Amino acid sequence: MMSQQPPTQAKVLIVGAGPSGLTTAVSLIKHGIAVQDIVIIDSVLQGENTSRAVVLHAATLEALESIGCVDGLNSSGLHMQRMRLQGGNGSTIITNDLSSLQPYTKFPYACVISQAHTEIELHRELETLGGHVFRPLKAVGMKPVENGLQVSFEADQTITAQYVIAADGARSVVHTLSRWYLLRRPDGLDKDESTDPRTSQIILADVSFDSNLEHIFPTDPYVGSLSICSDGIFLIAPLAHPKAKSTVYDATEPIYRIGFSVPLDKGEAPSHPGIEVLQSYVGAQGPMVISSDPSRNPGKPVHLKQVYWSTRFRTHSAIADIFFKRIRGDTEEENGGIVMLVGDAAHIHSPIGGQGMNLAIRDAVGLGAIVAKHIQSTDANINSNLQTLQDFAQERHGKALKQIAMTKRFTRLVSSLMNPWSIGYWALYVLGNIPFFRRMLVWQLSGLGNR
Questions:
Q1: Around 58, how many Cα atoms within 13 Å sit in the side-chain half-sphere?
Q2: What is the pLDDT of residues 175-190, one digit of tens each?
């Protein structure tokens, strides 16, 4: 049950309290909008959000620093200095050194941290500023009224706001209620969203093992590892320092993120796979050093101990036609308001490269700044200076298209590595020995070229 009832009027209503919604709220406040003019709602109870994304790249850390939110996240996460791509036999194909970013940023690394922890830190900052998230409230309707948009909820409640920010994910209710075109495939990019049947179905899970893996996957220095074999990909990464307690799951043992693709010819994977399903893939597809199969790992077979969270999803890319919309009613009195999209409500793409939450947070920091500027410059006339919002939305739309194109390139790159006898495999192996090529990959992953 909700501890508080939300007000019925607001300047800004933010629907969704994930990373993009929370960041937008904090950015609005830091750019001068009074906290009492902002209402944030979410459809789920606190604590029901899951782990999902696990990395903050350099450009995102810079954006968070601009609104005073980087210190807690940066100190809680693990700093990944290198990322290694390995073949199925354990041989290294490419090792990317993120320290090559040092001339361009004060964050020459990737900060590995659970999305759940990112949300905890952002929510803590919001509360410090006097903000509050009202839960659980699910939007079911929206209509233009005098001086705003009236959003209705399942609990027979309504909130009227001049600005409605849709930060409620890929199945955004606000997106649908705004009569936008549905998220669709980006024009000018590949029509086949499942670029390879071996990587279009992916399982992610946060788990613990029955063995100490610190010597295999050290956290100081932190080296990420992505293994690629003929069946697909397999990722394993520490989520918390083995000597520290996890603040996400209240665990006293090391937690690891594993991720792997399930070829479509093996059928549909469970939506929330349990320990037996995960164990079978770790044993067959993961690195030999963590296999439970004595034939693959004769030294000391490793077994999963506990599954804290797991999910399955299909990879695809899509983007809304526009991120900004001025909504009016049929009569002069129903002058309505403005809706803007952010995060997965605006664009989705493959998780390869860990770009989704990063682009969403950067979008949200900028969105808070531009909406604050518009509020402060309009003198209660919402139709003034609309071009500033349109220009911002068009700019971020272009950034999203660029990001989608990049993740598609990375997906094709990964697919080419699944066949060690292909031309693409050996071409990449050669390119991986060229310093400029490695620096280019690091630069693209960091987001510094697509702020």
A1: 23
A2: 666 555 444 555 444 4
Q: What is the SS3 assignment for 165?
A: strand
For residue 161, pLDDT beyond 50: yes
Q: How many CA atoms lie within 13 A of 86 on its CB side?
A: 19
Do residues 182 and 220 share a domain? Answer: no
For residues 218-247, average pLDDT: 69
Whole-angstrom Cα distance, residue 400 to residue 94? 27
pTM, to two decimals: 0.88
Asked whether residue 304 falls in the same domain as residue 326, the answer is no
What does 392-426 look like in DSSP terms, one character per residue?
Answer: HHHHHHHHHHHHHHHHHHHHHHHHHTT-TTSHHHH
β-pairing, 158-166 with 9-15?
parallel
Q: Flag whether 302 is in a domain.
A: yes
Cα gap 279→273, rounded to integer Å: 10
C-alpha torsion sign, points 364, 343, 240, 132: positive
pLDDT digit string, tens, across residues 325-355:
888 877 766 678 899 999 888 888 777 777 8
Q: Give the domain-ending residue among 253, 281, 314.
A: 314
Range list of H helices, 19-151: 19-30, 58-66, 70-76, 115-128
CATH number (domain holding residue 21): 3.50.50.60
Tokens read off for 72 = 């807690």
335's CB contacts (< 8 A; 6+ apart) are 144, 146, 147, 328, 329, 382
DSSP codes of every residue in 108-141: -SEEE--HHHHHHHHHHHHHHTT--EE-S--EEE
Q: Are residues 271 and 391 in the same domain?
A: no
Q: Residue 304: which residues within 8 A CB-CB, separation 6 or more? A: 207, 208, 209, 210, 275, 278, 279, 282, 292
Do 280 and 321 sit in the same domain of this protein?
A: no
SS3 18: coil
3-state SS, 303-353, equals CEEEEEEEEEEECCCEECCCCEEEECCCCCCCCCEEEEECHHHCEECCCCC
Give the chain's domain count: 2
pLDDT above 90 coverage of the chain, percent: 26
Q: What is the pLDDT of residue 293?
A: 80
Answer whether 445's CB lies under 8 Å from 57's CB: yes
